[in-house]
Amino acid sequence: MAVDVDAYFDKISKLSMTHRVLIFAATVVVLVGLFIVLIYMPKTDEIAVVESELSTLDKKITDAKFAKRDLQKLEMELAAAQDELTLALRLLPTTSEIPSLLKSITKLGNDSNLEFLLFSPEKEVTKEELYVEIPVSIEVRGGYHDVAMFFDKIGKLDRIVNVVDVSIIPTQPNSTILKTTCKALTYRFKEATKAQGVPEKGK
Q1: pLDDT digits (tens, 9 = 90+) for 41-59
Q2: Does the pTM of the predicted model rise above 0.90?
Q3: Which of 66, 94, 175, 177 is the 20 to 30 A CA-CA neighbour of 51?
Q4: Same domain flag for 118 and 72
Q5: What is the DSSP code (8-state) at residue 129?
Q6: Number of domains in the chain
């Protein structure tokens, strides 16, 4: 059924100003109510859902950034540790190098004008999973400066050699010739480590 709009507005025009204001106000209230119920409230719910999803995604992104940063830090620390291990193992002689290393130590003693009274490699001692310790008992005779020179040369070897348990006494009362006993400790890494691909010196 068609609505006669002109007749509707003609009726309204005949009403008093108060009634027309009330009708206008009621119309506005109805329109606002319809807007809130039909448009605003559904959109508000959608906005709340989207904001919640954005918050969750933002947290995941933040967590991922921290995880990436921690992973990079761990990778750098691992690389540094591997470099240190490789360098340390390169300072340890292999089994085949032990005889030449011991020969080098005796040569250093002879070059330092020392007389060897004892040079006795002892039984190897396993210290860690990666290496074993090779103790060598040494007894030499010579002057104080000669002994100091000998120890200094040992400290400058490419391979690790530590001198421990040092005892120095005169061969005779008031003599400048000393008898020095000590233990030289050198090390080698286990052959199992070599098989696992740990590079040796110069490789």
Answers
A1: 666 767 777 778 888 888 8
A2: no
A3: 66
A4: no
A5: S
A6: 2
